[in-house]
Inverse folding.
């Protein structure tokens, strides 16, 4: 195995790994500071913050020959015998000088800058900078202009790392951003009439190592040090991007992508990024309600306490019989499994179908490989895998509608939880009319709809950051996540209700349910044990048992 | 060193010397026809290698050696880029060649393309040379009409297209990878190396970038032979195995405070004093030289005492200059303030820095603003150390930038302050009698008015 020597420490790298010095040093626990380099973008080596000393150890003699000048760590590949020095006096002086140079024209307006607290310029200056400013130049300007509907540019904070420019050229492939002017006067800008409005545009804010690019959605909403971070999964489409939900006091402030080489690499789309506002929409259903008039006419609703819901829901549905259940692809694998189990315990012949699968447009793949799926739900594959355990036919929403319209159902339980507003409500009045003849209709949704207007029971659902469990994305990758924020007061997540309806004791424990499913079903056996943060491919065991080599 | 009969500048003063007929009458294109008829591309490479021709663009890299870096038997296209973006202050030798003898350049381009197996050549011309543009385009058209360019040149089976591209007036486009980026239609930000252009250059294909004067030299070597070329200039230093020698005639651009400024052809190795006295008629108005720029502003400064330094590829480096550069010799007489000189130099590089690498982008602009403050009577002795530190740490040589522009900005700073520190100190003491010795940090907001 090739050996790399980082500050005297020998580390081994993979025989065919192509690492640069920054990545190799990171393996040895050494952080080489850098601004312009990003693993998902091309290398430009222009910030010069990652300058280090390198050398080569002669395999035969063991003698080390050093390169007589500084080299950029991002641009320098390592091979067997590469020597990296990250802490020499020369390197430290060079870093201090780069920091000093970057701060010459940088307005030190950290107190009013959104980036303060997560700013690389701050962090590196604290760690590598000089204590005293030698430049005699007025640093403070405050020019700001919007480069797109979601992104604003604080022109003078920019350090010209060009990450944003490269992102729009290489990943989104739209190329709206560019560098104008020359030398110390150069700026990032967009061409007049061509604003930064592509579907991944918000990402440039994450890439910006300083406070130059601001997210207009997040601007001045919260200081970053108040934010708590929860690894989560985006529910916006079937890609299921790994994300970090940043929240404070049960309020989400922003979403950021979480690196996952199997799913979204470093990226996420704007639809997902800004797709959390429905969580805090005042129009949400917030309490479990039952219609007072048994014939479902009239609009009188009675709020039922949740412990009472557990019993009365079961007895209402049992009394009606002929149960049909729509298992929403917004539910987690665990919730779907418990819903099926509850339904079958009420009516052993209950008709179980995948809920409405919303679609919009067609899949869109960007030059950088990132895909936005037309299927706007995160867990169709997971729900189908669960349903297959109960009914190998795995009926869909249309089958359920046909079942209900055919008069074969006397009661229905429709789970939904679709974030509004989509371009149109997920269900229209005509479709909802199919459920009119039922003697008991339970609708569990985030927002009122044509269907909930007809319901006997109107139960609130929760949004993506408010639930815990497992989602399986379009690539059959199962990702487990924790609950980031609590749902609004008075709302039980679906999992909690179902857990109680199954008569299980204590707090809802998705991990226990997941293990139970994994033990019961070969197709979901990969979910046993701990699932890594980047998820696991559900097909991995099948592939292994088929003798085919498992995908890397 | 004895003056030589002009060869590269043969056509200067000849009526209609820029035309094909005149060039043919002087023996032009005959070597090309012989080469195409009887020699292999490898023979031309060997000829140029044997001649010891070093690139005339500034770095002085061996031309033949550069050609051999191209991948062998490359299946795709190979490109030749001819660098006519002559923007180094003080330099105008390419301009003379393009305006007065464009066919000499084109013959060199055809020979070089044949040697490197390039089927397309691009001439990247500086925007500010409209006459060169007209002359070159006219010569290209003439060469196409006469069958020296185009498909199957003179029945040899070798084809070549030459395109003349006019730049948009940026100094950085003279850097070879900046030139390539610009030719590709992008912002001329120099590329990181490796890969070098010979492996991955224009349109990501193997590319050779050569200077206009180098092309003219290739044409002359083909016409007059390797022996003639090696009979001129300075042989390699036996004590320095890495010195390949400086052979051939060179166009020196003499300007500044001399009696007869102009572009002169002289053997490599002529000293600055000989050049100024014999060709330039001495420093003007009977004054003494204070300093001389050996080869364009980015090469630094020689003092009056260093004027006997030979202007070959190794000479200026021995007195602390960056190198021979473009051999643009600018004479600065004793009345000029060296502070003003450095201010002017810093202003140029602050304006021309492409802004890609942090040390150059911020360093060139910071040094300019320090010089502006010094000239505004707010200088402090401490500033000189700061400028020196900047000069020592910015550039490709210390490794802090991608291209050599920052080295070019650093050398005048270093040379001026090292060689004329006394004058700087006197100036600062005189203009800032109350504050020259202060070492406190300059209060940024209070001093703004000085800028």
């Amino acid at each position: 195995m090739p050996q790399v020597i980082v500050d005297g420490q020998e580390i081994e790298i993979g025989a065919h790994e192509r690492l640069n010095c920054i990545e190799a040093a990171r393996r040895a626990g050494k952080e080489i500071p850098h601004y312009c380099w990003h693993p998902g973008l091309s290398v430009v080596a222009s910030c010069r913050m990652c300058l280090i000393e390198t050398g080569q150890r002669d395999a035969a003699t063991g003698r080390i020959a050093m390169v007589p000048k500084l080299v950029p760590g991002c641009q320098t590949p390592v091979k067997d015998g590469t020597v990296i020095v990250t802490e020499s006096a020369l390197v430290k002086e060079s870093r201090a000088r780069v920091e000093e140079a970057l701060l010459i024209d940088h307005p030190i307006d950290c107190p009013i800058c959104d980036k303060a607290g997560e700013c690389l310029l701050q962090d590196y200056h604290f760690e590598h900078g000089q204590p005293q400013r030698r430049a005699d130049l007025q640093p403070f300007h405050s020019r700001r202009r919007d480069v797109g509907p979601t992104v604003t540019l604080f022109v003078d904070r920019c350090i010209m790392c060009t990450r944003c420019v490269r992102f729009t050229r290489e990943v989104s492939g739209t190329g709206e951003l560019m560098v104008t002017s020359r030398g110390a006067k150069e700026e990032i800008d967009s061409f007049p009439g061509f604003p930064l409005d592509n579907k991944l545009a918000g990402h440039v804010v994450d890439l910006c190592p300083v406070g130059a690019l601001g997210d207009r959605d997040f601007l001045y909403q919260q200081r970053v040090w108040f934010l708590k971070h929860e690894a989560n999964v985006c529910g916006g489409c079937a890609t299921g991007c790994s994300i970090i939900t940043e929240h404070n006091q049960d309020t989400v402030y922003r979403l950021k992508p979480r690196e996952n080489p199997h799913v979204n690499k470093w990226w996420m789309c704007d639809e997902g990024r800004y797709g959390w506002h429905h969580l805090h929409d005042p129009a949400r259903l917030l309490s479990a309600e039952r219609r007072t008039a048994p014939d479902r006419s009239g609009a009188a609703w009675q709020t039922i306490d949740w412990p009472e819901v557990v019993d009365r829901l079961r007895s209402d549905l049992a009394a009606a019989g002929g149960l049909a259940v729509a298992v929403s692809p917004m539910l987690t694998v665990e919730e779907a499994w418990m819903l099926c189990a509850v339904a079958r315990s009420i009516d052993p012949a209950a008709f179980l179908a995948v809920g409405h699968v919303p679609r919009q447009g067609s899949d869109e793949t960007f030059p950088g490989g990132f895909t936005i799926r037309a299927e706007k739900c995160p867990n169709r594959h997971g729900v189908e895998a669960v349903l297959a355990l109960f009914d190998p036919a795995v009926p869909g929403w249309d089958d359920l509608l046909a079942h209900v319209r055919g008069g074969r159902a006397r009661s229905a339980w429709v789970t939904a939880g679709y974030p509004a507003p989509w371009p149109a409500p997920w269900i229209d009045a005509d479709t909802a009319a199919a459920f009119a003849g039922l003697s008991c209709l339970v609708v569990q949704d985030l927002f009122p709809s044509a269907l909930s207007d007809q319901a006997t029971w109107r139960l609130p659902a929760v949004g993506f950051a408010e639930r815990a469990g497992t989602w399986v994305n379009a690539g059959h990758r199962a990702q487990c996540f924790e609950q980031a924020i609590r749902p609004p007061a008075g709302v039980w997540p679906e999992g909690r209700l179902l857990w109680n309806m199954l008569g299980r004791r204590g707090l809802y424990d998705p991990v226990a349910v997941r293990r139970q499913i994994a033990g019961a079903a070969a197709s979901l056996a990969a979910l046993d044990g701990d699932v890594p943060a980047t998820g696991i491919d559900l097909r991995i065991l099948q592939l292994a048992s088929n003798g085919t080599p498992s995908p890397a | 060193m004895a003056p030589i009969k002009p060869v590269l500048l043969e056509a200067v003063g000849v009526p209609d010397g820029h035309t094909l007929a005149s060039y043919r009458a002087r023996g032009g294109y005959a070597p090309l026809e012989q080469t195409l008829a009887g020699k292999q591309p490898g023979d031309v490479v060997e000829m140029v290698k044997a001649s010891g021709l070093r690139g005339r663009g500034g770095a002085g890299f061996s031309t033949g050696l550069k050609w051999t870096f191209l991948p062998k038997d490359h299946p795709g296209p190979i490109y030749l880029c001819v660098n006519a973006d002559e923007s180094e202050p003080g330099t105008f030798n390419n301009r003379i060649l393009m305006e007065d003898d464009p066919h000499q350049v084109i013959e060199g381009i055809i020979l070089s393309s044949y040697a490197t197996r390039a089927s397309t050549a691009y001439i990247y011309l500086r925007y500010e040379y409209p006459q060169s543009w007209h002359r070159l385009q006219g010569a290209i058209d003439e060469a196409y009409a006469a069958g020296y360019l185009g498909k199957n040149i003179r029945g040899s089976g070798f084809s070549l297209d030459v395109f003349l591209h006019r730049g948009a007036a940026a100094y950085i486009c003279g850097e070879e990878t900046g030139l390539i980026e610009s030719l590709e239609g992008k912002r001329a930000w120099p590329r990181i190396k490796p890969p070098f252009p010979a492996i991955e250059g224009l349109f990501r294909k193997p590319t050779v970038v050569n200077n206009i004067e180098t092309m003219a030299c290739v044409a002359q070597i083909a016409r007059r032979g390797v022996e003639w070329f090696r009979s001129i200039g300075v042989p390699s230093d036996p004590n320095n195995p890495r010195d390949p020698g400086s052979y051939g005639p060179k166009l020196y651009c003499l300007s500044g405070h001399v009696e007869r400024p102009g572009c002169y052809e002289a053997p490599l190795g002529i000293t600055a004093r000989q050049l100024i006295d014999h060709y330039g008629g001495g420093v003007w108005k009977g004054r003494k030289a204070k300093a001389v720029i050996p080869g364009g502003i980015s090469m630094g400064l020689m003092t009056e005492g260093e004027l006997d330094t030979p202007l070959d590829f190794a000479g200026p480096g021995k007195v602390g200059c960056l190198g021979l550069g473009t051999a643009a010799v600018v004479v600065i007489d004793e009345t000029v303030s060296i502070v003003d000189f450095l201010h002017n130099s810093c202003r140029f590089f602050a304006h021309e820095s492409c802004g890609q690498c942090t040390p150059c982008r911020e360093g060139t602009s910071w040094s300019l603003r320090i010089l502006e403050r010094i000239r505004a009577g707010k200088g402090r002795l401490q500033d000189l150390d700061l400028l020196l530190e900047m000069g020592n740490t910015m550039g490709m040589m210390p490794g802090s930038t991608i291209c050599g522009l920052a080295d070019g900005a650093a050398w005048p700073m270093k040379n001026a302050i090292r060689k004329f520190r006394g004058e700087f100190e006197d100036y600062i003491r005189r203009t800032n009698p109350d504050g020259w010795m202060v070492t406190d940090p300059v209060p940024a907001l209070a001093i703004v008015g000085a800028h």
Summary: Chain B has three domains: 20-231, 246-331, 338-450. Chain B touches chain A at residues 170, 187, 189, 192, 350-359, 361-366, 369-370, 373, 386, 393, 397-402, 441-445, 447-448, 451 (CB under 8 Å). Residues 37 and 156 of chain B are 6 Å apart (CA to CA).
